[in-house]
Amino acid sequence: MPKWLKKSLVILITTLTFGMVAPPAYLLADDNNNEQSLNSYTNDRIEIKHELHTKEAFLQQVTNQALNQSYEKFGSKIGPVIKDEFNDVILPKIEYVLSQLTEQYPEEELQNLVISESPSGGHSEKIFHIYHSLTGKDIIRFHVRKDHPPLDGYYFNFHYHTHHDDFQMHHTLGSIFWSKNTPPKWMS
Fold this sequence. Notes:
InterPro entries: YpjP
Helix content: 40-55%
Pfam families: YpjP (PF14005)
Oligomer: single chain
Shape: elongated
Number of strands: 5
Protein name: YpjP-like protein
């Protein structure tokens, strides 16, 4: 089997299984049965598994906290009405933005990124912020705003801001229609 094909299969198996399944031995051994090559691959595989596990674990943890804080912000009056559309439309976009954020930081720096404790209620926009625990500076802010276009009903506009432009620009995630009636305060 060509060497490039063996390497491709090894990488494919390792990536798809997140390093949990070892590729067959015949793919690991080179044509000269060089044990050094096998040891080098094993060490590389462990590093890949560790990196995927850590970044994946961080992303899963932050996504779960983001979901919980979103539901907390919606409260018992808004939550049941918009929950399904939020899960189908907005949450995948939040996950995508969080995964992009994860890729911007080295693994050892991810442990310093923290999600804010709780959303704000009333009429405030804050769902959650992610900030650097050592500096205390926000990295990214996820918000929801109540919009009421003229002659139309109320919408919840989900968006985020980043530190790259000093939190000035709105990056839209999507909008969910509420109704013609004024929505209740957040967390009610």
